[in-house]
């Protein structure tokens, strides 16, 4: 998503951020081949004691009579990075800053937060883009796509590969990286097909791309179902083995002990997931997992050294403003440091 009109008043700071990135590119601090993406939660200026239970929060507010925080919240309801990221009603809403997300993601006391999203070049950890989003996974993944698109449009740089954690391993996001952008995903796949009851998992079945079917461990064809799909939207395709094959199969007790035949499901973007699975078995993947730490170190610096554990401004625009200023400071610091003490580039890994 491009910088929207909601953030227009802070456009000047994003332009400044871009100028700093250009300076880093000119100083040869950006490799352009490998990027890492991650998000960190920053506490919002909102308190639980002044919040309202989410199911009691009134969406039918009149923007004309509400404060700017509520006006921003209402304007963001259809935005994929904010209100439209999920239909789940939050447990609490802070009327002072309703776009802040009540989250228990850090496994300690829950709090209101925004997500600070960084897209970095792994050569020297230069921040290529920064985006504020709602503090939930779907919004963070959407922000990563926004930043990849915007970095390509602004600087003409699209990485060959991207490293990220499991939160970015959904099939639609891997489809975006592999099929839409042509970026190799160094990302663990979110995969719930593994079975732990001793029966065969989907990995034990081999997919035949030419004939769009699976071959089971007993060498039988498991064809694609022609039945109309009823569940999980249109994203999953079902394959059923033939009852006649399974009836006399010596492996039935390890395959489908309670049903007459075996069902396999395949995501419509399974091919993109397979690309990520194949990359996860390479030696390069081990190195890129270490490269990912660079974005975590930037967040640690942000909180411990720049002391940005809590936002001072409210609203999505306020979060975007503070995150952008912090990213400018971190890039300038890196630029100054590496200009004074140029790195020994001969020891850098070529991906
Ligand atoms: S039970 Fe059916 S699907 Fe499973 S291995 Fe045997 S023939 Fe193949």
Care to describe what's here?
With 351 residues, the chain is α+β, with helices and mostly antiparallel strands. The chain has 2 domains: 3-188 and 280-347, Ribonuclease H-like superfamily/Ribonuclease H (Nucleotidyltransferase, domain 5), CATH 3.30.420.10; 202-267, no CATH class. It has 10 helices and 13 strands. The strands form 4 sheets. Strands 1, 4, 5, 6, 7 and 8 form a 6-stranded mixed beta sheet that branches. A hairpin with a 4-residue loop joins strand 9 and strand 10. Helix 1 (11-26) runs parallel beside helix 10 and helix 4 packs across helix 7 (270-279). Iron/sulfur cluster binds at residues 216-218, 220, 222, 241, 245-246, 249, 251-252, 255-256, 262.
Classify the beta-strand content into a percent band.
Answer: 15-25%
Number of self-contained structural domains:
2
CATH H-level superfamily title of the largest domain:
Ribonuclease H-like superfamily/Ribonuclease H
Tell me the number of strands.
13
Bound small molecules, deduplicated: iron/sulfur cluster
Distance between the termini: 29 Å
Biggest pleated sheet: 6 strands, mixed
User: Helix coverage percent of residues?
Assistant: 25-40%
Radius of gyration: 24 Å
- The CATH architecture of the largest domain can be named as 2-Layer Sandwich
Q: Could you say which structural class the secondary elements and strand pairing correspond to?
A: alpha+beta
Annotation field: number of helices:
10
Class of the largest domain in CATH?
A: Alpha Beta
Mean pLDDT: 87
Low-confidence stretches: 1-5
The topology string of helices and strands comes to HEEHEEEEHEHEEEEEHHEHHHH
CATH topology term of the largest domain? Nucleotidyltransferase, domain 5
Query: What does the overall shape look like?
Result: globular
């Amino acid at each position: 998503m491009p910088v929207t009109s909601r953030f227009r008043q802070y456009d000047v700071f994003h332009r400044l951020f871009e100028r700093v990135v250009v300076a880093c590119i000119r100083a040869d601090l950006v490799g352009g081949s490998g990027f890492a993406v991650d998000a960190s939660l920053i506490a919002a200026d909102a308190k639980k004691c002044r919040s309202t239970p989410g199911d009691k929060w009134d969406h039918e507010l009149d923007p004309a009579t509400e404060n700017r925080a509520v006006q921003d919240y209402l304007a963001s309801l259809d935005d994929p990075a904010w209100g439209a990221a999920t239909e789940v009603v939050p447990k609490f809403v802070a009327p002072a800053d309703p776009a802040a997300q009540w989250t228990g993601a850090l496994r300690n006391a829950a709090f209101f937060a925004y997500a600070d999203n960084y897209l970095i070049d792994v050569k020297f950890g230069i921040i290529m883009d920064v985006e504020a989003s709602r503090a939930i996974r779907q919004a963070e993944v959407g922000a990563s796509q926004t930043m990849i698109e915007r970095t390509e449009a602004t600087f003409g740089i699209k990485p060959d590969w991207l490293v990220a954690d499991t939160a970015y391993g959904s099939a639609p996001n891997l489809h975006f990286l592999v099929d839409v952008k042509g970026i190799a995903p160094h990302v663990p796949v979110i995969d719930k097909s593994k079975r732990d009851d001793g029966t065969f998992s989907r990995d034990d079945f081999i997919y035949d791309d030419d004939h769009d079917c699976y071959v089971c461990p007993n060498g039988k064809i498991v064809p694609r179902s022609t039945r109309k799909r009823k569940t999980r939207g249109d994203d999953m395709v079902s394959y059923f083995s033939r009852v006649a094959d399974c009836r006399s199969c010596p492996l039935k007790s390890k395959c489908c002990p309670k049903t007459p035949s075996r069902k396999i499901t395949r995501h419509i973007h399974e091919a993109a997931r397979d690309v990520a699975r194949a990359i996860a078995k390479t030696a390069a993947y081990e190195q890129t997992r270490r490269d990912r730490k660079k974005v975590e170190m930037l967040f640690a610096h942000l909180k411990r050294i720049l002391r940005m554990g809590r936002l001072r401004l409210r609203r999505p625009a306020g979060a975007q403003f503070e995150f952008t200023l912090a990213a400018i400071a971190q890039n300038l610091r890196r630029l100054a440091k590496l200009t004074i003490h140029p790195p020994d580039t001969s020891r850098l890994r070529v991906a």
